[in-house]
């Protein structure tokens, strides 16, 4: 993939006392070869690399005292929005929305797990802010900066980052700790986020900023 030209070392811009590491949708159905996407034939190798780096970032955040926040899609058939179902039908993929169903195992975390004191958010769709108390939990901890990671870059990472910006948070997307299933889409999404609402950084730069 073409190199991104605008990654930076965040330094004290991500002071642990006011920063949360946001881990978006590292779940079986999105990240594991055994999940819905893996079984459909998607190449999951990029997800594995991203999760490796997310594990490194979680460890660094805990050691530095930064908040760690885990996002999960949790759905039931009755929770699927009519807009989602109609969109799927109109584009010829009805039923494709059946992912991360509660009780299926696909909604489970993959290779990561929250600990007491972490933030956990259950959501129905893309943004971690929509229909949740994520903003309230962050404000209660005095957090004004988010370091965003996860899957997929073009969907839930993008939506969460843009909504964070609209909620007046400073955002950093860790470009090598996010993944999608298309290199060109990955690159273009990261460029668009940098252009409109976020700064880009890398796993090594964040670890260094947190004393690693």
UniProtKB/TrEMBL annotation:
Protein name: Cysteine hydrolase
Domain annotation Isochorismatase-like: ranges: 19-204
Alphabetized Gene3D superfamilies for the sequence: Isochorismatase-like (3.40.50.850)
Domain of life of the native organism: Bacteria
Keyword Metal-binding recorded: no
SUPFAM superfamilies recorded: Isochorismatase-like hydrolases
GO molecular function, one term: hydrolase activity
InterPro entries on file: Isochorismatase-like_dom (IPR000868), Isochorismatase-like_hydrls (IPR050272), Isochorismatase-like_sf (IPR036380)
Annotated organism of origin: Novosphingobium olei
Keyword annotations from UniProtKB, A to Z: Hydrolase
């Amino acid at each position: 993939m073409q190199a991104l030209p605008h990654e930076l070392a965040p330094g004290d811009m991500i002071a642990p006392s006011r920063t949360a590491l946001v881990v978006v949708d590292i779940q079986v159905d999105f990240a594991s070869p055994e999940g819905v996407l893996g079984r459909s034939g998607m190449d999951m190798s990029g997800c594995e690399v991203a999760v490796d780096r997310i594990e490194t970032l979680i460890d660094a955040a805990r050691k530095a005292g930064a908040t760690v926040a885990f996002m999960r899609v949790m759905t039931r058939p009755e929770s699927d929005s009519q807009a989602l179902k109609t969109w799927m039908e109109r584009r010829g993929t009805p039923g494709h929305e059946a992912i991360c169903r509660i009780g299926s195992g696909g909604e489970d975390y993959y290779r990561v797990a929250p600990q007491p004191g972490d933030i956990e958010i259950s959501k129905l769709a893309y943004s971690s802010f929509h229909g949740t108390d994520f903003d309230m939990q962050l404000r209660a901890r005095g957090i004004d900066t988010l370091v965003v990671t996860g899957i997929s870059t073009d969907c839930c990472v993008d939506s969460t980052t843009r909504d964070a910006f609209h909620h007046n948070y400073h955002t950093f997307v860790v470009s090598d700790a996010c993944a999608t299933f298309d290199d060109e889409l990955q690159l273009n999404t990261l460029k668009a986020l940098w252009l409109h609402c976020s700064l880009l950084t890398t796993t090594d730069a964040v670890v260094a900023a947190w004393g690693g």
